[in-house]
UniProtKB/TrEMBL annotation:
CDD domains: FReD. Residues 1-20 form the signal peptide. It comes from Biomphalaria pfeifferi (Bloodfluke planorb). Residues 177-351 form the Fibrinogen C-terminal domain. InterPro entries: Fibrinogen-like_C, Fibrinogen_a/b/g_C_1, Fibrinogen_a/b/g_C_dom, Fibrinogen_C-term_domain. The keyword ATP-binding does not apply. Keywords: Signal. This is BpFREP2. Transmembrane segments: none annotated. GO terms for cellular component: extracellular space. SMART domains: FBG. SUPFAM superfamilies: Fibrinogen C-terminal domain-like (SSF56496). Pfam families: Fibrinogen_C.
Amino acid sequence: MTSLPLRLVLLVSMATLIRSSSWLHFAGNSETIRELIQPLKLTCTFQISKNDSDNDSQVLFMSIYHETKRVIASISKYQPMATSLYPSVTKVQGHIYHSNESEDSYLQVIWTHPKLSESGKYFCLAHARNSTSQNNVFDADITINVTKSSTDDIAVALSYIQDRLDKDGVDSIQISRASPTLPESCRDVISSEDRVVVTLASGLKVMCDTKTDSGGWIIFQRRINGNVNFYRGWKEYRDGFGSYSIGEFYLGNENIFKLTSSKKYDLRIDLEFNNTKYFALYTRFEILGEQDYYELQIGGYSGNAGDDLTNHHNDKFSTYDKDNDKSKSGNCAENWKGAWWYNACYDSNLN
């Protein structure tokens, strides 16, 4: 049986955080919203002034997140479609313009029927690079208060909805029976882009690498700029975290288990350091289920990065709150501020 490819990507970069800037603007349609009735709209804009010669920055990506660290939406120069993994968001849109286009890059999210839990402080981050190749992260915030709707508010809203239904007629909503065929794997995806986010036939949303080593790779871990914290607990590594548009994410051990238990997969690890690229290719890759602590099964190695994973064959996954390693000197994940298939402790530690 032919193996399918999985890919892990790591890059290293540095950025300066700028918490106050006239270039980044973050606003809502109102700071006080009525629950379920009044829509909530948040818009983050990186403004370019034609008369401002100091602002020659190219926006690389933007993200909006809640004070609870939930990523609400994001967009990237390299993944230009704005996306949201937050289930209650009704609509997300945005565009990142090139610095010479004199247009304002923006990211916008809309909740048609916001809940009380949408209250709190929201932050917008814009990662930009200026003409001297310096990376800067711009930060802005806004506080939203979603208030409980009164009985009268709900009655007025229901009356409005009923009037609209009467005007539109009972046949106004039709569901098309035709549905496009979804890809079984990234090998079925053809794109002019190097990376593209797709939904597989299984319902899993993944990022596909369509170019590396003939393409067809599912990227299950990607680190390029340090904007996502990878020192996390068991549940987050089980379920996955991060954002495709930001470019940093972990697909989740449960998703990787389901993928690798259904078909045969190869594993490719790509790293870049000081403008030099390295890779490691393994001819078999599988992790077992949660009851087996997502134990790693790995095959033969080739590449120029060095074989630093074979020693972790048959090792169990560990996080700071779930120690499954073989070390007698404490929790490797806690000691080394990571999460990995630690032995005692590691030859590799990519999370």
